[in-house]
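Two folds, back to back.
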Amino acid sequence: MKRLWTLGLVILWVICLGVGQGARAGVIENAGKALWPEAETEDWTLTLGMQVAAYPPYGEKRISQLNDMIQHMGLRIRKNGDEATAQVLIDGEETPALVLINGEETPAIIGLESEGTEPESEDMLAQALQGAEWMHEAFRMLDEGAAFLSELPEKYPEGSYEKKTKQKTKMGTAVRTVTVTINEAEEGDHPMQTLVREAKQDSIRETMGSWTFRGRFRFTLLYDAEGRLLKANCSGRAGEDAENLRNLSLEWRLIRTEEMKRDDLTLRTPTADGKRRDNWIIEREWERKATEASGAQNTGETADKDKDPKADGEKQDGNPETDAETGSGAEERLSFTLEYDQKRGNEKTQYKWEGSLEGNTGLQGGVSFTTGRKNEKETITVRPALTECGAERIAGEAEFIRVKDKVIQEQATVRMDWQAGGGTEVPTALQSERAFAAEVLRSLLQRIDEADLGFLKDEIPEEDWQRILEAAGAGEIGEGTGNTEY
């Protein structure tokens, strides 16, 4: 059961964390802000429910029994400030909560560290969680990296040379080329290190602030007539320290407007001896189109055209603040591909994320994460169908499928309801997972009809099952274990 709920959380993280930085404020970014630790919303409540379609080694009968049981169950996670708790719901009623211990760190995305950027766990769910964090950071770096490069000639005028040009690119016509050459200083810090440490963009400082830079860096930047950066090439040497330098090579085509983002980026980072590399290929396209705002809600009532819309404090259609709050009035589309190629000696691993999402007040589409090592491939696919995706609430469902070597390993549909605000304070919080499991089992046996407990009953001898039911009725399950303290 623990793995099933982990599966549900993976769905939320893959959707919310992975794509949340793919767009400006709106339905897609609202989804991203929901669970990301840096979200503006400090307190939130998330409720999950689930129906399972495939879960080897269980067959059709066992899956049916499992669904009979978990239809009565839900999982509620509350975050209040620095504290978080989890509760299992039995037919909507809460059981004692478990205190969750968190120790998350901001992930590295480019892999210039000497070790540790690859997911440490062989478990695909853990890799998908790590992958979602990578994807989130990659989108964040795209946005802040574009701003950093665009401002570079102003930040380092002594190494900048500008000339007029007329060059067609994938993103538009460039009319100006700026070459920025940054040489290593004879004394003191490398100028690149100073530029990075003083950058306005948080992700630039956080990711590269401790890097070691060596030799000459050269940037070629192409701008259009409106001053927008269309293309950036970069080369240089940098790494976590002097013993782990990488030869950096960046080629990036991009465009930024209020209603569109497009990126086509290739980043190669091999070591000089060729034994290690972390290469990225990222393609992203996001657009937002205005849709006709509807004045009257679809309730069968007719709007009073003569009524002053400002009267009684009513919100007006087309109000930017109203649209930003509800997500209405603008439809968003996001498609992306991220490929990450990693080499450690003779070991090569590839990771690939693909996705296509669209929505107005809701969110639909699909996101997949594939990892391959040698001849083995494993893919997690998430297909969200969110009916509400606002800044204060995200609700709907998502299908989850995990396939390994073309065989379905797990398939389920998760119902979700995320709301800003931590809700009421949890009265009882357990420190022990064992005590938590005992309370959940006791609640299941006490509150659910025995006909829906076949998933548990069929695995237990009848005599033992009757003793368990008697213990549950007397409130004795978990007693004497030393793990039921509150």
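---
second:
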Amino acid sequence: MKNLSRLSLVFVIVVILFVSLYFLKGDVKDKDKTSGTKYGISGYVPSNFPNSSINDLNKYWKDINRYSDIYGIHLNWNEVETALNLSKNVKGDTYVLFGFQTPSDWKNSGEVIENIDRILKERKNIKYIGIGNEINLIQSKYPKEFSTFKSEFKKISKHINDNYPNIGVFTSFQYDSLRGKATLMSISQKSNSSLVKEFESDVDFVGYTVYPFLEYGDVNSIPSTYFSDLESITTKPYAITETSWPTQDLEFKGFNFSEEMQSEYIKRILSLPDSKSLIFINIVFLNDTTDWKSGNSSKNPLFDSLGLRYNNGQEKQAFYIWEKRN
């Protein structure tokens, strides 16, 4: 009987080890269900961009590593050298989201795969690879050609899953347009959340760019279900790859773009319930992309003032809220 008991004990130990190893090898969804939501920053904008000094660059990377749990590198599919140069400065987790935006891009899936291979072999801090940014807008722009994007995306996703099983694959959607509620966008809107389902079999999680100011004039006007609806669109985990609130008053009737309102928005983001399905929330830009306070602006000023700091690195109110989030 003693030998039988010992055999039973050995059997139980073997089963426990097997189960433990099985779950350790789980996919991105399994791992991130236990890790909690991370809070990070996306986009490369050092202070005084695009005329940043060496001191600006050094301070930028020091601050990114201090204030970001995960850093998002967003660039075109062929900017592999830039991806390598940026990611080498990040001490923690990072991801690369490749723009794969036009029919001419979709002819280059082989080169995209070569670039991904190189990046993942040279950089061990990259946790996720994204292919295609705001792809519902791509579908709106190229409806006849969009099936080609889907087929090429499937090829790239399969390659990553087959060769890098620990790397999570995603694509991103523009959430407000997906809801059909983005009044300030220049293109016509209609609800199209069903598009997300078409990609679920080829992604580990779904990315969203989230800009409620495209529809709602202030934070208090954002519906209570606005963020929870993100989770209901898909059965997959999800991430917010870009979000923020403008601080430049563009004098749009009924819209409050200000430091105070950005602060309220950051508070709202940080107060979201910690969800095992929400992998990360990334604020877009540490610093503003242009020195709009001095009269410099881009072709789309709505996105000039989304940073937690002004272009010169001066902190906004929201920065201090973000700084104290932990």
